[in-house]
Amino acid sequence: MTNIHPRDKEIQEYALDRSACSPSLINHIESCTSCQEEVTSYQLLFAELTQGPETAFNFDVIGLVKPLLPVPEPLLSADRFIAGFLVVFISCCICIPLFLFSRNIIQMFSGIPPLFIYSMLGSAVLILLLKILDMYRKFRGQMRQLNYH
Amino acid sequence: MHHITQIKTNDKYLVEQVLRGDNRAFETIIRNTEHLVAQIVGKMVPVIEDRKDLVQDIYLKTFHHLGTFKFQSKLSTWIAQISYNSCLSWLEKKKPLLPGNLHEGEDWPGYSTESQQNQSFTASESESLIFQKEMKSILHEEIKRLPVVYQTLIALFHHESLSYQELTQITGLPEGTVKSHLFRARKMLKENILSKYKKEAL
Prior knowledge:
The structure holds two protein chains of two kinds. Chain A is mainly α. Chain A has helices at about 10-15, 25-30, 35-50, 60-65, 80-100, 100-110, 115-145. By secondary structure, chain B is an all-alpha fold. Helix content of chain B is about 75%, strand content about 0%. At the A-B interface, helix 1, helix 3 and helix 4 of A face helix 2, helix 3, helix 6, helix 7 and helix 9 of B.
């Protein structure tokens, strides 16, 4: 047995889980009256803490949260049907003329100087980038407002 | 191990149901986690009206972010983490209005536990029962004097039997810090109770 008393931390570890302690620590505590007293007081404390009073809300949590939850949408609502129809209709309006007049469309752009096409494409990309940046800034602002962290 | 896998399967089923639009599944999630959230909010937030707002906020955050839950922990641990962070934000905002701070002991007005509400002793009660009640009363007084983070860790570790790993996930503190906070909290409790009890015995 070592004559040096274990630190308070080790006494707590022993009181919590004896099996996780080193054999020298177990030997010391089992043969030392003052350490055993310390262990007993910690074990009493832990027992009280485990049996502590039940903490519960004194209000109805479900009743408080439920009205704020969004009402689930039916799987095939009229809106969804109309949206689906519009997507199919617009796709047809674009794809059918493209398929029928594809050769004429290519000829339409053959006379335009490349510099003009590049400037048009460049400005379109620039506008798109600005829009994305604006959306991202708005998103960051909203996330900050929600204060999730 | 089997128990944890079962919990995770159950969590997955409930989350899938909520994402499909079944709000009754979310009610089940609330029912399953309410006591854990109460432990955290009850320890960290003293004002009942604010507790209501916070609980609403916690569960709405949970609902709106359920799609981002990766099942790397138990759902209850994730909700406890949201609760802890929401309470910390609340404490930061209310800091100038409340006595003490996160690292000092506080005596909340308006927050009481069951044992403190029932402190009426009768002459017929045995001495041991009186001793036990006194001990409980002293213990709960002393717990309330601990810093709120210590109170929460003590409640979650001892009362809810959460592991160090789960406490690390909830609080975002390193495991060593969680252990050292718990160690200090228990030491403070033991020493304060012993000194108080000795004083009362004299």
